[in-house]
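Lecture 7 notes: from sequence to structure.

We start with a single chain of 173 residues. Read the sequence below before looking at the structure.
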Amino acid sequence: KSGQFEDIELAKFETILNHGLPCLSAPMSFQSKNPSLLITFDDGHKSDIEIVLPLLLERNATASFFIVPDFIGDEGFLSWNDVKNLSNAGMDIGSHSLSHVDFRTIDNNQIFSDLVESKKILEDKIGKPVVSFSFPYGFVPRKGGKLASDSGYCYVFGSKHGVVTRRNNSAEI
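Now the structure, written as tokens:
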């Protein structure tokens, strides 16, 4: 349990988990009336099940995991069984697009199709509604939020890698 996974060092992630506020997935965080930390992971790396999930469960914490269906089963990525295990452990499974294409490079019809198809695949695999979406590369194209909402997503994210605080949250959507 040392080193780095995804975009954050393990020690920094553990510091966040031990911060004192509840760590919650997107649906739980937005529904809570109390302050909380919203924790998200993109792409579906194997470290999500091997490192992250045990740490979250130790602390009764939840997080949102944004999965790319086309990555499932690739080396270093989750299997469908891993995704189901995350979901069954109370984690929010969201879409991170079908194949991680940069949505700024495709037209709105292709974006809408990707949003709908990735949502359907994930829902079929986990047997639960998928309500969260995170745009690949963090960039939200013009009308992207509306297209995601029209596709049935309730929680839609761009991203800034690492730890986002009030001080360094300069991402404009």
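The chain has a mean pLDDT of 88. Keep this in mind for problem set 3.
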